[in-house]
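Q: Predict the bound structure with flavin-adenine dinucleotide.
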Amino acid sequence: MGAPAYRLSGTIEGMDSLDAHSEHGSVGPRNPLQASVLSRRLLSGTGSRKQVWQVALSASSADLGVVPGDSIGVLVPNRPGLVDAVLEALGMHGDEGSPAPQASLREWLRSDRELSIPPARLLRVVGGAGPSHHRTAPADPAQGIDHLPRPDLLDILSDAVAAIGSAAAIKALRPLRPRAYSVSSAAGPAQLTVARLTADWAGRKRVGVASSVLCDARSDDPLRLFALPNPAFHLPADGRPLIMVAAGTGVAPFRGFIQQLAAGAPTRRSWLMYGERTRSHDFIFEDEFRASLAAGILSRMTTVFSRQGDPVRYVHEAIAQHGSDIDDWIRAGARVFVCGSQGVVSNVRDALVAAIGASRGWSPLRAEALVAQLEADGAYLADSFG
Ligand SMILES: Cc1cc2nc3c(=O)[nH]c(=O)nc-3n(C[C@H](O)[C@H](O)[C@H](O)COP(=O)(O)OP(=O)(O)OC[C@H]3O[C@@H](n4cnc5c(N)ncnc54)[C@H](O)[C@@H]3O)c2cc1C
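A: Predicted complex:
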């Protein structure tokens, strides 16, 4: 299957922009592949503060036309409880008609509308922020969470309805947004590595629309899937050394790369640098990565944990710690791949500039120019979860 030529960068965009370049008739946001979850495996330990699941899909990577480095766009129906809460805020019962022929308002909201991320129009109506728009806790870059919950639809919907009425509020609702997940397997059933998003915020438990379905062992909700190709982030076919830098579920594409290396991709020196919260509960894929190291598929692995009391806590600090080795690898032609939240990606880049400056005795400007050149040459590649 020819992969459609669209790509999200940073944050997932609305459905309309997503399929702006999709090819007619191919699998895309408007023509997704119907699938389901084949199996789920909890990767994080029971003592972890978060849950990370390995999710195998009924569609294969080949069906979707994806390889590690690409992402999969996932559309899931909204939870019935969320639909009920939205109907209540709208002052509706759900059996009213909807803009979709033959669908009740309840059905339309469940399968067609974005009920988590608020539309810009409703945010404007209520003045930009709901009750949850207060920062009360520090960010944790190792967790991959470097932005705190923004107002979601339920935070603002009652105020918006009071201001413009329920009919206008319903009209302002946007199409259900696909969520992107990095492909974390090289072949067979496509696999995703998903952090379950839950947060107690402003007196209400927030549950991520897509991650809750993907990570809920009881859910057999249908999924609609399509490829989000990112050819620049594929494992190159040459044998140049490879440095993979990730925090949290940002390690997902690199698990796929390591499987590709094990399956016969050209051998090369490869170094995984990985940051998480705790060694005992959050070191996902530990056995696989250690086995790859023992087998020589990985040449080197550096792990850092932010909650162990270690002096080096975050992956960008590990870049500083190993700066001169990293610079040696770069001089030897290494490509650096970085994956994680926006904060992780930006901290790693800053740390690399500083590390190169320190290693070569260069000014920050000169080191920055080198990293910019590496980016232009495709030797420094970052994929951000937004
Ligand atoms: C290219 C790309 C690749 C990605 N790959 C992966 C991956 O491999 N694994 C993975 O787990 N995720 C990945 N993500 C993130 C994923 O797409 C979703 O954003 C994430 O799972 C949350 O979606 P949700 O539907 O569960 O939550 P939503 O329903 O979208 O969010 C629920 C509420 O939580 C808030 N919120 C959203 N994100 C956070 C956060 N991080 N911390 C606190 N509050 C938040 C929202 O503002 C909203 O109010 C990727 C994102 C991109 C753009």
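A: The first strand starts at residue 33 and ends at 35.
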